[in-house]
Amino acid sequence: xxxxxxxxxxxxxxxxxxxxxxxxxxxxxxxxxxxxxxxxxxxxxxxxxxxxxxxxxxxxxxxxxxxxxxxxxxxxxxxxxxxxxxxxxxxxxxxxxxxxxxxxxxxxxxxxxxxxxxxxxxxxxxxxxxxxxxxxxxxxxxxxxxxxxxxxxxxxxxxxxxxxxxxxxxxxxxxxxxxxxxxxxxxxxxxxxxxxxxxxxxxxxxxxxxxxxxxxxxx
Length: 219
Prior knowledge:
Elements: H1 3-15, H2 19-24, H3 26-48, H4 59-62, E1 83-87, E2 98-103, E3 109-115, H5 120-142, H6 144-147, H7 172-175, E4 180-186, H8 188-192, H9 196-218
Helix pairs in contact: 1-3, 3-9, 5-9
């Protein structure tokens, strides 16, 4: 696993985002892809030690394709400028709260987790759990391990109160949320550092209690 290969390939891709260049540099792409998949496999193994729900996942189930869906986009560039993996129970297409890893040059790499835009019944279940047990969630968000990496939950919220809840609900700040995201950015220097893999695992471990809260709600 070589993160330098990953960053170098993505840096060059940003300057040459076309199929002709990709064909000419397919060998370099495949090596960078393999390096990212190898890193993902190592992270899955590490996470499995503290989150058994992840055990048995493969990198292939977690890593997103580099190709962009350009059918309905004004941006016709064929490729994403990052490698990403959703290390989540059931793989990248799962609705469960989990762990997300992205590598992108120029300081755009990050680790994230939680639940992004849960829909319908899942969002309703999370809001209900918050309504019943907001104190528990607030305790998790105030924990030292959480605060070491995250300031608060991130993501969009509705402007007023969601249907079924009053504006003066004492937990309306949490109930208004449409996403429940934890986000930790890292520099290119950190991505290239010897401690990068350990840092990923530590960040993911810090977000696990909040993931557990969200997943318990959606069970």
